[in-house]
Amino acid sequence: xxxxxxxxxxxxxxxxxxxxxxxxxxxxxxxxxxxxxxxxxxxxxxxxxxxxxxxxxxxxxxxxxxxxxxxxxxxxxxxxxxxxxxxxxxxxxxxxxxxxxxxxxxxxxxxxxxxxxxxxxxxxxxxxxxxxxxxxxxxxxxxxxxxxxxxxxxxxxxxxxxxxxxxxxxxxxxxxxxxxxxxxxxxxxxxxxxxxxxxxxxxxxxxxxxxxxxxxxxxxxxxxxxxxxxxxxxxxxxxxxxxxxxxxx
Length: 249
Ligand code: SAH
Known about the structure:
Layout: E1 6-8, E2 19-20, H1 23-32, E3 40-44, E4 50-58, E5 61-71, E6 79-83, H2 88-100, E7 105-110, H3 121-135, E8 142-143, E9 147-148, H4 149-155, E10 162-165, E11 186-190, H5 198-205, E12 210-213, H6 222-237
Parallel strand pairs: 1-3, 6-7, 6-11, 7-8, 7-9, 10-11, 10-12
Antiparallel strand pairs: 2-5, 3-4, 4-5
This protein binds S-adenosyl-L-homocysteine (SAH).
């Protein structure tokens, strides 16, 4: 991993256009990382590529001045993770791992057995930013407001295959449905701790764009199912043929 700090900024990145950072990021660079005037920092904003920046300090504010674009912008393949929010720490885990594994969209889904009613999309965004920073990712996943399962299914683009992880049937593993998958366009649906209700399972199975799959003989926790299914999709039709980006030290 590079020693050079890498941070996500909200502002446009362009040569010599100074960016004063908000309090949290200033604190992180100056107090946690203990960087001083003249230090190098990498910055990205999801649009303008990655830039090598030089740090200056004005009292407690860290200011980045972009010097050169060191990496072109790229976007993650179109893959939406639809997940039923679960307990806080486990939802945090899902957001972090899904961002690392390259989803383009995170869609919290309210299902019949969803226990959590409160979905903190602001918190999800912070976690996604951290994961993107650490993972050399160039963009952030789009985080959608939570919505009810029937509503999401009704507005789903029927051309996009939706993989439905179904532990309660004799569905085949993903590899046996590879011919129905599309590069750059897909969705993965994972249920809450209590699984899907019989009504939901019936509704899902009646839809043509839904592909029920099994993740094997063990019943996985929702967050394990998320990581497993994303891994399978990425390996089958995602961007895993690209090599990791290795920044210079
Ligand atoms: N039905 C169970 C467990 C649900 S596990 C119960 O009543 O407790 C949570 C979610 O993870 C499921 O809804 C499903 O989407 C996914 N999942 C877990 N294990 C799975 C498996 N072996 N195959 C497919 N999906 C699985």
